[in-house]
Amino acid sequence: MLISVITPTYNRAYILNKCYESLAKQTCKDFEWIIVDDGSTDNTEALVSTFDRSLGFEIIYIKQENGGKHVAHNTGVLQARGDLTVCLDSDDMLTETAIETAVGVWQEKQNARYTGILAKRGDFESRKPICGTWPKELESATMCDLTTVHGFYGDTVLFFRTEILKQNLFKTYPNERFMPEMNLYCDIDTYGEMLLVDEVLYLCEYLPDGLTSKYHKLLRENPNGTADTYYKTMLQAKNLKTKVKFAILTNVYYLLSKQKKLLTFPQGKLLIALTRLPAMCLKNRFLKRVEKGTAQ
Question: N or C, which end of the chain is more exposed by having fewer CB within 10 Å?
């Protein structure tokens, strides 16, 4: 069994080595590492050329014009040959047994109803989870239900079935260089549930030049992708209150878009229409919260 590890990267030569070292320490080498350089102008390519190719896993380097992380992720997925694919950000690490654990769980429990494996992220220093918990008896769930039904919160690591990823690449919009990851997760949720592993398999910290630090600004600057993401989340919500919330958010970013003709909402048209006026009234107040980083 093979796992594909995809690392989209942009001007991260100063820290990419930490990512490489975590892969070099894996107790199981049944993986390939696909580095997608999204138009870096630093010495990323030179650094990658120094990585040891004799450690038991293949390193594949692809350089492309800058298009955003989601576009780089798509490139990696199309190259992937593994049974499962996981995205490892260029400033993060896998725990030493992450690949071994994922391979073992998948070989033991895989079946057609599972879309992959979901495990916890932890802090670099303490290695303690930086996320919530789910009910102990819960063995699998869709990513949407895990948060909206079971109360889970925080960041995870996701090993997806590669065949499903290849059929569900991130959607792209002209002149937008960011797409919320939930957009892809909503698509994958329609195929089945994720196996839950109550272990930390991924370690991270949030850097000043990372996407997380400027997340709300990115949402505002990429309104089409954001509106589409909230729309998909609205469709999957299980109760009316949650549906209304995401319908309003869909409309807020729809109103911000300068390319509205690219956005279509074929399902839930009535709810979208009914929440258009509240969104117009709430837009400015909401965007002030976005600027402060307090919006949900």
Answer: C
Instruction: Note the pLDDT tens digit of each residue in 155-213.
Output: 999 999 999 999 999 999 999 999 999 999 999 999 999 999 999 999 998 655 554 54
* Distance (Å) of CA 251 to CA 229, 244, 263, 271: 11, 11, 11, 10
Task: In whole angstroms, give the CA distance from residue 86 to residue 33.
Answer: 10
pLDDT tens string 91-131: 999 999 999 999 999 999 998 999 999 999 999 889 999 99
d(CA 114, CA 277): 40
Element holding 24 (H helix, E strand): helix 13-24
Answer left, alpha or beta for residue 24, where phi above 0 means left and psi between -120 and 50 means alpha. alpha
- Backbone dihedral region of 5: left (phi > 0), alpha (psi from -120 to 50 degrees) or beta? beta
- The C-alpha atoms of residue 150 and residue 200 are separated, in whole angstroms, by 19
CA 84/CA 88 separation, integer angstroms: 13
Task: Map out the domains of the chain with their CATH numbers.
Answer: 3-210 (3.90.550.10), 213-292 (no CATH)
